[in-house]
Amino acid sequence: MRKFAVLAAGCSALAVLVGLGAGRAWFSLPSGKIDAARASATSDELVTGTIASRWPVPGGAPQSAAPAPAILPARATTDSPMSAKPTALPAPAPAPAPAPARQTCSNPNALGISRTVEIDTTGGPGLGMSQYRDYDFLQPGEVALTFDDGPWPVNTPAVLAALAAQCVKAVFFPIGKHASWHPAILKQVIAAGHTVGSHTWSHANLASKPFAEAKSEIEKGISGVVLAAGQPTAPFFRFPQLRQTPELKAYLGERNIAAFSIDVDSEDFRIHKPDQLVAGVMAKLKKAGKGILLLHDFQKSTAQALPELLAQLKDGGYKIVFITAKDKVTTLPEYDAQVAPAQPTASAAKPIAKVIRTVD
Protein backbone atom coordinates (compact mmCIF):
# COMPACT_ATOMS: atom_id res chain seq x y z
CA MET A 1 0.00 0.00 0.00
CA ARG A 2 1.29 3.42 -0.90
CA LYS A 3 1.90 6.00 1.70
CA PHE A 4 -0.36 8.97 1.82
CA ALA A 5 1.02 12.51 2.07
CA VAL A 6 -0.41 15.33 4.32
CA LEU A 7 -4.16 16.07 4.14
CA ALA A 8 -4.67 19.78 4.48
CA ALA A 9 -7.01 20.56 7.33
CA GLY A 10 -9.98 22.91 7.39
CA CYS A 11 -10.56 25.43 4.75
CA SER A 12 -6.86 25.43 3.80
CA ALA A 13 -7.68 22.41 1.66
CA LEU A 14 -9.27 24.83 -0.77
CA ALA A 15 -5.90 26.27 -1.59
CA VAL A 16 -4.83 22.94 -2.98
CA LEU A 17 -7.35 23.34 -5.76
CA VAL A 18 -5.36 26.20 -7.20
CA GLY A 19 -1.93 24.63 -7.13
CA LEU A 20 -2.61 21.02 -7.95
CA GLY A 21 -2.18 21.35 -11.70
CA ALA A 22 1.60 21.13 -11.45
CA GLY A 23 1.49 17.48 -10.55
CA ARG A 24 -0.04 14.75 -8.47
CA ALA A 25 -1.24 15.79 -5.01
CA TRP A 26 -0.95 13.38 -2.08
CA PHE A 27 -2.62 13.43 1.28
CA SER A 28 -1.66 11.70 4.49
CA LEU A 29 -3.83 9.39 6.51
CA PRO A 30 -3.56 10.67 10.08
CA SER A 31 -3.78 7.97 12.68
CA GLY A 32 -5.88 10.17 14.94
CA LYS A 33 -9.47 9.64 15.93
CA ILE A 34 -12.17 9.43 13.30
CA ASP A 35 -15.02 11.94 13.30
CA ALA A 36 -17.75 11.38 15.86
CA ALA A 37 -20.55 9.15 14.69
CA ARG A 38 -23.07 10.87 12.49
CA ALA A 39 -26.64 11.51 13.54
CA SER A 40 -28.91 8.48 13.50
CA ALA A 41 -30.69 9.69 10.37
CA THR A 42 -27.48 9.35 8.39
CA SER A 43 -25.90 6.32 10.01
CA ASP A 44 -27.34 3.33 8.20
CA GLU A 45 -26.65 3.27 4.49
CA LEU A 46 -27.38 0.04 2.67
CA VAL A 47 -24.61 -2.26 1.62
CA THR A 48 -24.85 -3.55 -1.94
CA GLY A 49 -25.54 -7.12 -0.92
CA THR A 50 -28.73 -6.26 0.97
CA ILE A 51 -30.37 -3.96 -1.54
CA ALA A 52 -32.37 -6.65 -3.31
CA SER A 53 -34.16 -7.55 -0.08
CA ARG A 54 -35.30 -3.95 0.43
CA TRP A 55 -36.59 -2.61 -2.91
CA PRO A 56 -37.33 -3.36 -5.75
CA VAL A 57 -36.84 -6.72 -7.46
CA PRO A 58 -35.07 -6.02 -10.79
CA GLY A 59 -37.27 -6.85 -13.76
CA GLY A 60 -40.46 -6.35 -11.75
CA ALA A 61 -43.52 -4.33 -12.67
CA PRO A 62 -42.90 -0.93 -14.30
CA GLN A 63 -42.56 1.81 -11.73
CA SER A 64 -43.87 4.66 -13.80
CA ALA A 65 -46.03 5.05 -16.85
CA ALA A 66 -43.92 8.01 -18.00
CA PRO A 67 -42.25 7.72 -21.42
CA ALA A 68 -38.88 6.00 -21.39
CA PRO A 69 -36.01 8.48 -21.25
CA ALA A 70 -32.80 8.14 -23.15
CA ILE A 71 -29.16 8.36 -22.28
CA LEU A 72 -27.56 10.62 -24.83
CA PRO A 73 -24.01 10.18 -26.14
CA ALA A 74 -21.17 12.21 -24.71
CA ARG A 75 -20.89 15.79 -25.84
CA ALA A 76 -18.23 16.53 -28.35
CA THR A 77 -17.17 19.77 -26.71
CA THR A 78 -14.07 20.00 -24.83
CA ASP A 79 -35.50 20.09 11.70
CA SER A 80 -32.70 22.21 13.53
CA PRO A 81 -32.04 25.93 13.29
CA MET A 82 -29.74 26.97 10.48
CA SER A 83 -26.47 28.43 11.64
CA ALA A 84 -25.54 29.88 8.27
CA LYS A 85 -28.44 31.00 6.14
CA PRO A 86 -27.89 31.93 2.48
CA THR A 87 -29.56 34.89 0.89
CA ALA A 88 -32.89 34.07 -0.72
CA LEU A 89 -32.87 34.16 -4.52
CA PRO A 90 -35.79 34.13 -6.96
CA ALA A 91 -36.47 30.73 -8.50
CA PRO A 92 -34.77 30.75 -11.92
CA ALA A 93 -36.65 29.72 -15.03
CA PRO A 94 -35.72 26.26 -16.30
CA ALA A 95 -33.38 26.24 -19.25
CA PRO A 96 -31.37 23.62 -21.13
CA ALA A 97 -27.95 23.09 -19.69
CA PRO A 98 -25.17 24.67 -21.76
CA ALA A 99 -22.56 22.39 -23.25
CA PRO A 100 -19.85 21.89 -20.63
CA ALA A 101 -16.47 23.21 -21.67
CA ARG A 102 -13.69 20.65 -21.43
CA GLN A 103 -11.23 21.90 -18.86
CA THR A 104 -7.54 21.59 -19.53
CA CYS A 105 -5.72 19.13 -17.29
CA SER A 106 -2.16 20.18 -16.51
CA ASN A 107 -1.27 16.85 -14.89
CA PRO A 108 0.06 14.62 -17.70
CA ASN A 109 -0.23 11.53 -15.50
CA ALA A 110 -3.77 12.21 -14.29
CA LEU A 111 -6.53 9.62 -14.28
CA GLY A 112 -8.75 12.08 -16.14
CA ILE A 113 -12.20 11.59 -17.67
CA SER A 114 -12.60 8.92 -20.33
CA ARG A 115 -15.99 10.16 -21.54
CA THR A 116 -18.89 12.36 -20.51
CA VAL A 117 -22.49 11.16 -20.79
CA GLU A 118 -25.62 13.27 -20.68
CA ILE A 119 -28.86 11.97 -19.18
CA ASP A 120 -32.27 12.92 -20.51
CA THR A 121 -34.29 12.73 -17.29
CA THR A 122 -37.72 12.88 -18.95
CA GLY A 123 -39.93 10.35 -17.18
CA GLY A 124 -37.50 9.83 -14.32
CA PRO A 125 -35.11 7.07 -15.40
CA GLY A 126 -33.49 4.88 -12.79
CA LEU A 127 -29.71 4.46 -12.96
CA GLY A 128 -27.60 1.95 -11.06
CA MET A 129 -27.88 -1.78 -11.60
CA SER A 130 -28.42 -2.62 -7.94
CA GLN A 131 -32.01 -1.46 -8.32
CA TYR A 132 -32.64 -0.45 -11.92
CA ARG A 133 -31.87 -2.60 -14.97
CA ASP A 134 -33.13 -0.52 -17.88
CA TYR A 135 -30.04 1.59 -18.58
CA ASP A 136 -26.79 -0.34 -18.37
CA PHE A 137 -24.69 2.40 -19.96
CA LEU A 138 -21.25 1.77 -18.46
CA GLN A 139 -18.78 -0.31 -20.42
CA PRO A 140 -16.40 -2.82 -18.80
CA GLY A 141 -13.75 -1.00 -16.81
CA GLU A 142 -15.77 2.23 -16.53
CA VAL A 143 -16.48 3.84 -13.16
CA ALA A 144 -18.76 6.77 -12.28
CA LEU A 145 -17.90 8.50 -9.00
CA THR A 146 -20.75 9.73 -6.78
CA PHE A 147 -20.65 11.40 -3.35
CA ASP A 148 -23.52 11.67 -0.86
CA ASP A 149 -24.36 13.65 2.29
CA GLY A 150 -22.30 16.83 1.82
CA PRO A 151 -21.41 19.57 1.74
CA TRP A 152 -19.30 19.39 4.87
CA PRO A 153 -16.40 21.52 6.14
CA VAL A 154 -12.87 20.15 5.66
CA ASN A 155 -14.01 16.85 4.14
CA THR A 156 -15.75 18.13 1.01
CA PRO A 157 -12.94 20.58 0.13
CA ALA A 158 -10.41 17.76 0.57
CA VAL A 159 -12.46 15.54 -1.76
CA LEU A 160 -12.54 18.37 -4.31
CA ALA A 161 -8.78 18.74 -4.05
CA ALA A 162 -8.19 15.04 -4.64
CA LEU A 163 -10.52 15.01 -7.66
CA ALA A 164 -8.85 18.11 -9.09
CA ALA A 165 -5.40 16.55 -8.69
CA GLN A 166 -6.48 13.67 -10.94
CA CYS A 167 -8.58 15.87 -13.27
CA VAL A 168 -11.75 13.85 -12.71
CA LYS A 169 -15.37 14.88 -12.15
CA ALA A 170 -18.13 13.33 -10.05
CA VAL A 171 -21.82 13.60 -9.18
CA PHE A 172 -22.61 15.03 -5.72
CA PHE A 173 -25.89 14.40 -3.90
CA PRO A 174 -26.02 17.03 -1.10
CA ILE A 175 -28.44 17.00 1.80
CA GLY A 176 -30.58 20.14 1.66
CA LYS A 177 -30.02 21.03 5.30
CA HIS A 178 -26.25 20.63 4.95
CA ALA A 179 -26.31 22.81 1.85
CA SER A 180 -28.18 25.51 3.77
CA TRP A 181 -25.52 25.41 6.49
CA HIS A 182 -22.57 25.47 4.09
CA PRO A 183 -23.60 27.18 0.83
CA ALA A 184 -20.06 28.42 0.14
CA ILE A 185 -18.75 24.85 0.05
CA LEU A 186 -21.55 23.78 -2.30
CA LYS A 187 -20.63 26.64 -4.60
CA GLN A 188 -17.07 25.32 -4.65
CA VAL A 189 -18.38 21.95 -5.85
CA ILE A 190 -20.21 23.67 -8.69
CA ALA A 191 -17.30 25.97 -9.53
CA ALA A 192 -15.09 22.90 -9.92
CA GLY A 193 -17.40 21.62 -12.66
CA HIS A 194 -19.04 18.70 -10.89
CA THR A 195 -22.69 17.68 -11.30
CA VAL A 196 -24.95 18.40 -8.32
CA GLY A 197 -28.21 16.58 -7.60
CA SER A 198 -30.04 16.26 -4.26
CA HIS A 199 -30.50 13.81 -1.38
CA THR A 200 -33.60 15.06 0.55
CA TRP A 201 -33.77 17.82 3.13
CA SER A 202 -32.66 15.86 6.21
CA HIS A 203 -31.63 12.35 5.05
CA ALA A 204 -34.86 10.80 6.31
CA ASN A 205 -35.89 7.24 5.45
CA LEU A 206 -38.63 8.12 2.95
CA ALA A 207 -40.01 4.58 2.75
CA SER A 208 -41.18 4.84 6.36
CA LYS A 209 -43.03 8.15 5.93
CA PRO A 210 -46.48 9.06 4.60
CA PHE A 211 -46.37 10.12 0.97
CA ALA A 212 -46.99 13.82 1.66
CA GLU A 213 -44.18 13.97 4.21
CA ALA A 214 -41.79 12.08 1.95
CA LYS A 215 -42.65 14.36 -0.96
CA SER A 216 -41.90 17.37 1.22
CA GLU A 217 -38.49 15.90 2.12
CA ILE A 218 -37.69 15.46 -1.56
CA GLU A 219 -38.87 18.91 -2.63
CA LYS A 220 -37.38 20.81 0.29
CA GLY A 221 -34.09 19.09 -0.40
CA ILE A 222 -34.17 20.19 -4.04
CA SER A 223 -35.16 23.76 -3.12
CA GLY A 224 -32.53 23.93 -0.39
CA VAL A 225 -29.74 22.77 -2.67
CA VAL A 226 -30.75 25.14 -5.49
CA LEU A 227 -31.02 28.06 -3.07
CA ALA A 228 -27.61 27.34 -1.57
CA ALA A 229 -26.07 26.84 -5.01
CA GLY A 230 -27.48 30.12 -6.28
CA GLN A 231 -28.42 28.47 -9.58
CA PRO A 232 -30.41 25.51 -10.91
CA THR A 233 -28.82 22.11 -10.42
CA ALA A 234 -29.27 18.74 -12.12
CA PRO A 235 -32.57 16.79 -11.90
CA PHE A 236 -30.75 13.90 -10.19
CA PHE A 237 -31.90 12.38 -6.90
CA ARG A 238 -30.73 9.57 -4.62
CA PHE A 239 -32.96 8.07 -1.94
CA PRO A 240 -31.32 8.03 1.52
CA GLN A 241 -30.28 4.47 2.33
CA LEU A 242 -31.63 3.67 -1.16
CA ARG A 243 -35.05 3.16 0.44
CA GLN A 244 -37.98 4.08 -1.76
CA THR A 245 -41.56 3.16 -2.61
CA PRO A 246 -43.27 2.71 -5.99
CA GLU A 247 -45.29 5.87 -5.35
CA LEU A 248 -42.18 7.96 -4.70
CA LYS A 249 -40.36 6.56 -7.70
CA ALA A 250 -43.41 7.38 -9.84
CA TYR A 251 -43.48 10.89 -8.37
CA LEU A 252 -39.88 11.47 -9.48
CA GLY A 253 -40.97 10.36 -12.94
CA GLU A 254 -43.72 12.98 -12.96
CA ARG A 255 -41.11 15.58 -11.98
CA ASN A 256 -38.68 14.34 -14.68
CA ILE A 257 -36.03 13.61 -12.06
CA ALA A 258 -33.64 10.68 -12.46
CA ALA A 259 -33.31 8.30 -9.51
CA PHE A 260 -29.74 7.15 -8.85
CA SER A 261 -28.98 3.86 -7.22
CA ILE A 262 -25.50 2.29 -7.14
CA ASP A 263 -23.44 -0.61 -8.44
CA VAL A 264 -20.63 -0.63 -5.89
CA ASP A 265 -20.93 0.47 -2.25
CA SER A 266 -17.69 1.67 -0.66
CA GLU A 267 -19.28 1.17 2.79
CA ASP A 268 -17.32 4.21 3.93
CA PHE A 269 -20.04 4.92 6.47
CA ARG A 270 -18.66 2.00 8.52
CA ILE A 271 -15.09 1.47 7.22
CA HIS A 272 -13.06 4.28 8.77
CA LYS A 273 -9.54 3.09 8.01
CA PRO A 274 -8.52 4.59 4.66
CA ASP A 275 -6.32 1.68 3.60
CA GLN A 276 -9.11 -0.81 4.28
CA LEU A 277 -11.55 1.43 2.44
CA VAL A 278 -9.36 1.53 -0.67
CA ALA A 279 -8.74 -2.21 -0.59
CA GLY A 280 -12.46 -2.94 -0.22
CA VAL A 281 -13.49 -0.71 -3.11
CA MET A 282 -10.86 -2.12 -5.43
CA ALA A 283 -11.87 -5.69 -4.57
CA LYS A 284 -15.52 -4.96 -5.29
CA LEU A 285 -14.70 -3.22 -8.57
CA LYS A 286 -12.56 -6.14 -9.65
CA LYS A 287 -15.54 -8.43 -9.05
CA ALA A 288 -18.13 -6.14 -10.65
CA GLY A 289 -15.92 -5.01 -13.52
CA LYS A 290 -17.51 -1.53 -13.64
CA GLY A 291 -20.11 0.56 -11.93
CA ILE A 292 -21.54 3.64 -10.22
CA LEU A 293 -19.49 3.92 -7.02
CA LEU A 294 -21.09 5.26 -3.83
CA LEU A 295 -18.87 7.38 -1.58
CA HIS A 296 -19.61 10.08 1.01
CA ASP A 297 -17.87 13.46 1.04
CA PHE A 298 -19.31 13.79 4.56
CA GLN A 299 -16.81 11.19 5.78
CA LYS A 300 -13.30 12.14 6.90
CA SER A 301 -11.89 8.72 6.04
CA THR A 302 -13.20 9.04 2.48
CA ALA A 303 -11.45 12.36 2.01
CA GLN A 304 -8.25 10.80 3.34
CA ALA A 305 -8.51 7.68 1.18
CA LEU A 306 -9.54 9.32 -2.09
CA PRO A 307 -6.07 10.27 -3.46
CA GLU A 308 -4.88 6.67 -3.13
CA LEU A 309 -8.15 5.27 -4.44
CA LEU A 310 -7.92 7.40 -7.58
CA ALA A 311 -4.29 6.39 -8.05
CA GLN A 312 -5.20 2.72 -7.82
CA LEU A 313 -8.08 3.19 -10.26
CA LYS A 314 -5.58 4.61 -12.74
CA ASP A 315 -3.07 1.85 -12.12
CA GLY A 316 -5.84 -0.72 -12.51
CA GLY A 317 -6.78 0.61 -15.94
CA TYR A 318 -10.23 1.87 -14.93
CA LYS A 319 -11.83 4.73 -16.89
CA ILE A 320 -13.84 7.52 -15.28
CA VAL A 321 -17.22 8.41 -16.80
CA PHE A 322 -18.64 11.81 -15.87
CA ILE A 323 -22.45 12.00 -15.72
CA THR A 324 -24.25 15.23 -16.63
CA ALA A 325 -27.89 16.17 -17.21
CA LYS A 326 -29.58 17.42 -20.37
CA ASP A 327 -31.77 19.84 -18.39
CA LYS A 328 -31.84 21.63 -15.05
CA VAL A 329 -34.19 20.86 -12.18
CA THR A 330 -37.19 23.11 -11.58
CA THR A 331 -38.04 23.87 -7.97
CA LEU A 332 -41.59 24.35 -6.68
CA PRO A 333 -42.42 27.77 -5.18
CA GLU A 334 -44.23 26.24 -2.20
CA TYR A 335 -41.05 24.51 -1.05
CA ASP A 336 -38.78 27.39 -2.01
CA ALA A 337 -40.72 29.45 0.51
CA GLN A 338 -40.32 26.80 3.19
CA VAL A 339 -36.53 26.73 2.99
CA ALA A 340 -35.94 30.45 2.35
CA PRO A 341 -34.35 32.33 5.25
CA ALA A 342 -36.91 33.98 7.50
CA GLN A 343 -37.19 37.70 6.93
CA PRO A 344 -36.66 39.90 10.00
CA THR A 345 -39.84 41.29 11.50
CA ALA A 346 -40.34 45.02 12.06
CA SER A 347 -38.86 46.15 15.34
CA ALA A 348 -41.19 47.46 18.05
CA ALA A 349 -38.31 49.03 19.95
CA LYS A 350 -38.58 52.64 21.07
CA PRO A 351 -35.89 55.16 20.18
CA ILE A 352 -32.84 54.41 22.30
CA ALA A 353 -32.90 57.89 23.91
CA LYS A 354 -36.33 57.15 25.35
CA VAL A 355 -35.13 53.94 26.97
CA ILE A 356 -31.52 54.59 27.98
CA ARG A 357 -29.97 57.81 29.29
CA THR A 358 -26.83 58.72 31.17
CA VAL A 359 -27.62 59.83 34.71
CA ASP A 360 -24.15 60.20 36.16
TrEMBL record:
Cross-referenced InterPro entries: Glyco_hydro/deAcase_b/a-brl, NODB_dom, Polysacc_deacetylase_ArnD
Region called Disordered, residue ranges: 76-107
GO biological process: carbohydrate metabolic process
One GO CC annotation: membrane
Any one Pfam family match given in the protein's UniProt record, by short name: Polysacc_deac_1
Ranges for domain NodB homology: 141-321
Lineage: superkingdom: Bacteria
GO terms of molecular function: hydrolase activity, acting on carbon-nitrogen (but not peptide) bonds; metal ion binding
Keyword terms, alphabetized: Hydrolase, Metal-binding
Comp. bias (Pro residues): 89-99
Record function comment: Is involved in generating a small heat-stable compound (Nod), an acylated oligomer of N-acetylglucosamine, that stimulates mitosis in various plant protoplasts.
Family: Belongs to the polysaccharide deacetylase family.
Protein name per UniProt: Chitooligosaccharide deacetylase
Source species of the chain: Rhodopseudomonas palustris
